[in-house]
Amino acid sequence: MQPIGDICDPESLDSVALGFMCGLEIHQQLATNKLHSRMPSELYEIKSDDVPNEWSRSTRRLRASQGEGGITDVAARFEQMRNRTFEYVQSPNAGLIELDEAPPRNHDPEAVDVVLTMAAMMQAKPIPSLQAMRKTVVDGSNTSGFQRTTIVATGGKIEVDSSPIGVDLISLEEDSARKLETRHTENGETVVYNLDRLGMPLVEVATSPDVRSPEHAKQTAISLGRILRDTRRVRRGLGSIRQDLNVSIACGDRVEIKGCQDLEWIPGIIRLEMARQLHFYRLANELRSKASLPPLPPNREDDSIPVENRVALSASKRIPMKLSDLTDIFQNCESKMISSSLKSGSSMIAVALPGFSGMLGTKSLDNEGAQLPRLGRELASAAKLAGVAGIFHSDELPAYGISESDVLSARESLGLLEEDAFALCIAPSWQAELALESVVNRARLAFHRIPKEVRNVVIRKGKPEDGTTTALRPLPGEARMYPETDIPVLEITQHRWDSICASLPPSAEERKNRLEDLEISDNQIEAILNGELDDLLVQGLEGPLNLPPKAWASALLEHGKEKPNSLAASVHLVETGSITREGAVELFPESIERETSLVIEWMESEAQSRGYIPADSSKIEKAVEEVLKDREDFVMDKGLGSVGPLMGVVMQRLGGSADGKEVSRILSQKIEDLLS
After folding, report:
1. What is the CATH code of the structural domain delimited by 300-450?
2. For residue 479, is pLDDT > 60?
């Protein structure tokens, strides 16, 4: 049965009927030192133009190499073809290990314990011997050409909306360097990276394809993120957690989508990917029908290798890798972009796409305003991977300053028939040729199912452009992994695992429950939990100072985790009447964080010398009565509205040695008595 669904209305696509499968990969930064260098995990929020002159820079080119099995990873080989140079900026927390000029240190034990804790919380089984592996990465984000990753646990599970989600792998790996900018040159791109993030520990959680729907994927990501945060050993903030989506439908194939930074984006991105895979399945069968080739079955499990080999051979013959230089034809083109590019030494290179007229498509939108999938956009994505700005194709021409006569001249030069299409690329000749080779390869793949690849969400100004994605690189193969020889195997003893399991942090629900009986509001509870302040709150309540819940909660919400001992001391002294509130406000910023008893001793001494010892009630009452006697007419005129203006007068008379709250209470009461 052929798959049913309208790609113009992705919301209506039936996940069950289309054979939807989805798994998640969650990457979360840990709040520890770097994994194999012990350098601080600190980010320097600077742009490329603001890099201090004293920060060293180095330049490298990376190439793919064969793994132990003699195979070069397809994704690594592709990256090498892009002819890029990488420039590395050495931040203060990047040393010889980050520069790949010294061997790595063993696994950071704190980071290992954090990931083991996460594994236990997900009911996973630890790997007895942790072997660091090198994962080939030649996009420049790792100076060494590989990323170190270690599988820590397998076979876990979580519950999401009463549905079990398998956790296949939990790994500990190094984060990559941060891209600052990309500079385009005649010889290729130069990509500038900051090494501040390189080597930060990441936990990677990969689920089984148990997600039932786009919305269920979002809920799964929320649940996983909550479990990771419950350890209280993960970094917070933008970019500290990333979600990758592995999506397929029966008539398509697995695609990994990166760049999903916001949980709210997940359902829409998945639905658009389902629509894209459905569209290209239908397009493949349309192309096969025109070429008298066997159709694709509705389910990829029914594919025949001999048939697909036959189709691939036919596609290669139909779309030859024959590139043509049409620079002369476009010398007088009206497009300012084209004319300026030609003057700067670029060439206009073309390739024929026989039988593809009308198949490439033009830009149109679905019911939600997202771009509908079209082959022309996929071809442009393939070309952009070579570093070019894009391509022109015949389905969208004449346009962009390219006239009808330019199109006719190009078609005549290429010897095209009416049913044929073509693509143009303007760039330095070597780059344009590389880009159009990618275009031809992608056009040939249009006769098959959607290619297995890594795609990226299209982001504009920090938000998805419309939820659509663009090709990033081929899906990596097994050949990219091989053992790390510089790091010894780490044995996880039963004693270590038992200790981890015996001291698991409370869950989110348990954390909330222990706060509900306290004398604090629901809003305060929510704010404390969101700020991860509940452990400090409980410690203050159960500690030797026996802090009152409301006052301690308010203080934590105002000051956060800054100097907790000093904060506890100031709350204690105010609540016991040892110093004034005004005195605590002055002394807390000046205090040095140390043992609580020492902070209390210092604050009491300073309060005594600076006059922050509270006046007793009788003294306050006397001062209030004197002020009211002097300003009786003002009180009678303003009523209770005189409390605010007279507060300062009373406090001044007391020399600042009174608790403002107590002064306000007595002043209000005395004014009410006077007015009655």
Report:
1. 3.30.1360.30
2. no
